[in-house]
Each structure stands twice: as C-alpha cells, then as structure tokens.
Amino acid sequence: MQSELDHIQLSPLLVGEWYKDGLLVSPDGPLAIQRPAPPQPALVQPPAPPKTVPPQPAAERAPEPAPQPPKASQPQPAAVQPAPEPKPVPAPQRTPEPAPGPETPDAYKFLGKNGKKITILVQSPGIPFLPDNALTFLTKILEACRLTLGDVAIVNAATAPVNITALRRQLQPSAILLFGLEPTAIRLPINFPEFKIQPYDNCSYLSAPPLTHLVAQTEESKLLKSKLWVCLKTLFSV
User: Fold this and answer.
1) Which range of residues forms the domain containing residue 194?
2) How many independent structural domains does the chain possess?
3) Is residue 50 domain-resident?
4) How many CA atoms lie within 13 A of 69 on its CB side?
C-alpha cells in the first residue's frame, strides 16, 4: 500500500544537502557511500602457565663435585736486576791540623805541701825534682827564712813545660822563685834580671842562677849565695 509520502519527489540537490556526509551525487542521482567497518579489537592470547618440573628423587640427583683446594701459585723467578755500577767516592778532604802548641799538664806535680803559697821552679833534667845536695841546700835556705818544705811547692820544669797561667790557676802562689829559668821560659809577658824582686799581677817574682851553681864550693858561688840571701830577706821580711 502506498502512502502519500511515496509520491513526494526530492530533488538531487536537496538530498545532497541532507546526506552530504553519506551520499555521493552522480549525474544519475545520489549514491550511498560505503563507510569502512570499524576495526575489530585483536584478540589477546593469555600467557601460557609456566611448566612445573616435578622434583627429582634424592637418589636420582647427581652428586655435587667436592670443592677442590686452591692450587698453590707457582713462585715466579725474580727478575735479576743488574748490579748498579759503584759510584766513585771522592776522597775526603783533610782538615789541616792545628800546629801543636806547648804541652800543658792538667796538674803539675810538686814537692811540698804549698802551705804558704810559695812556688819554687827548678830545672833538674833526669830526676823527679832535685838532686840530694840541691835539696839540702834549699832546705837550709828556707829554714833561714823561717820556712819549711811544707810551706812551699817545688816544681821541676824539666819534667813538663810550665805555663804560668796554668801554674797560677793550680797553685795560686803569692811568690815564685825561679832557679835557672828565664821569665820568658814560663810564658811570662815580662822579663827582668837575676836577683831583682819583680812584682807582677799580684805576685812577686825572683830569678836566680841554677841551684847547681849555688851549691858549688867556689868563691863565685859564695858571691851568688850572698846576693840571694839579701833578696830573700826582703821578699819574706826576715
């Protein structure tokens, strides 16, 4: 049965305006556009479950290898280094030695006790102090001056060179008698003749001939002994 709408004719232009997105207009009339079908979602295959390996019986397990001890490392031969060539050692330079000075003993040996700080210097080679005749003569002279061997210190300069500085430091004399010695022989900075009392640096000096000249039984020795006696009386206030 046809309705009244079946007789309505639509112009191609009107149809194209209505269905411009779904129709193609050709000279013969509008054509339907075949739209592509929407893409179907791809089927996602679920992951296969992991295969379980049944545990092997204890008897079927392969025995684990026993741990092997570590092998000792073989010592490597040490590389032989060539010996270094010896370097030439320079010859040591010798320091010039100072010229030897006069020997001075640490302490002078003396005869007596030095009770009154009187030093008597003699020159007697080959013996410790004095020959017997010279010692006897000297003892009598000291007795005439009211002195003894205990009051003096007799030093033989022939046994060791005498330095006046060291001698005074050791014996601290107030008077020094020189028999057969020049003042310069004991390093005194002054010189004076025999039989003259010479004061110097808080000390009194008296120079006389050797005792061997005084003990001789001659007229000359008598004259020398008289000169010595005069000086000793003045020096010791006799």
Assistant:
1) 111-236
2) 1
3) no
4) 3
